[in-house]
Amino acid sequence: MPGPNPAPNPAPNAGPDAGSSSAEVRRGVAVVLGSALDGRIPRDLGMRPRTVETPFGPQELLEGTTEAGLPAHVIFRHGLPHVRLPHQVNFRAQAWALRQVGCGALVLNSSVGVLVDGVPLFTPLLATDLLMPENRLPDGSVCTLFTDEAVEADPEVRALQGHLVLRDGIFSGALAAQLRGLAPIPRAPDPLVFVYAPGPRTKTPAENRFWAAAGGQVNSMSVGPEAVLAAEAGIPCAALVVGHKRSGGTGSAPGHEALARSLDEARDATESILLEFLRKGSPVTSGNLVYRFDSRPG
User: Fold this and answer.
1) Hey, what's the torsion of the CAs at 39, 40, 46, 50, to 10 degrees?
2) Domains and CATH numbers, the chain
3) What is the pTM (predicted TM-score) of this model?
4) 3-state class (DSSP) for residue 7
């Protein structure tokens, strides 16, 4: 019986925003920044704005280059300034835009709630696995790039569509190793399971206990869809998370000022790592594949 075959790489289309998954094109790096981050990183790197048209709508990003001259991109998932709640983020457009600009290594940043003892606050950590049982976006649709509308409208989506097979894991070990080589990142509990719990509300104590009992250590309202869609797009990714509050107890949630202070501390813990990656990072190879039944021989 023949083994799984990855979907073939479509030929590049003409135009500056057309892309391909070929190794020749995947030269860039990117980060997706969360609520704690402001515009200092792209300003420090002299990045300029760009809008990429995708089958899922336009996506704004900032672009520049690494010290080695590779393309580097930043996306603020909530906009800059913060205008989009988690359920209003166009996760599909984000992933496809990064594919089109040739991203070959993606770091997802998130300030997270900590569900269990043993995970420190305000300490940058790398997630190793994902708990997202229903694989759905906040609007209830399946978390995939391969929607009927996109497959019908875009030949590249149609050529790529298939079943994502996670041979390399949802988070790239090679990219995690690269990040550890660029900056000191403490070792997290192994595994550090990230729970995707869609917002925009926070979770009840019972829900937090449920996720902890299911094996989760940290959670937030993003990252999960971004990791899944990036994997479908052939982009290896890592999740650099920092706990900014305890979510597992039964006490009252922090107030507005306390949350703002905690997000500032989370930013200070991760900003230098993200900046170092955008300056010195490089693409890695993904071991995941998209399996297509119509790509089998015979």
Assistant:
1) -20
2) 28-291 (3.40.50.1580)
3) 0.86
4) coil
Query: How far is residue 71's CA from residue 250's CA, in Å, rounded to a whole number?
Result: 46
* 83 pLDDT tier (thresholds 50, 70, 90): confident
Cα gap 15→162, rounded to integer Å: 26
User: pLDDT tens digits for 239-253?
Assistant: 999 988 888 654 455
- Per the document, the length of the chain is 298
Tokens of 69: 């001259």
Answer yes or no: are the C-beta atoms of 100 and 18 closer than 8 Å: yes
| Residue 109 · residue 34 · CB < 8 Å | yes
What number of helices (H) and strands (E) belong to the chain? 8, 12
pLDDT in tens, 5-54: 443 333 333 333 333 333 346 899 999 998 777 788 888 899 999 999 99
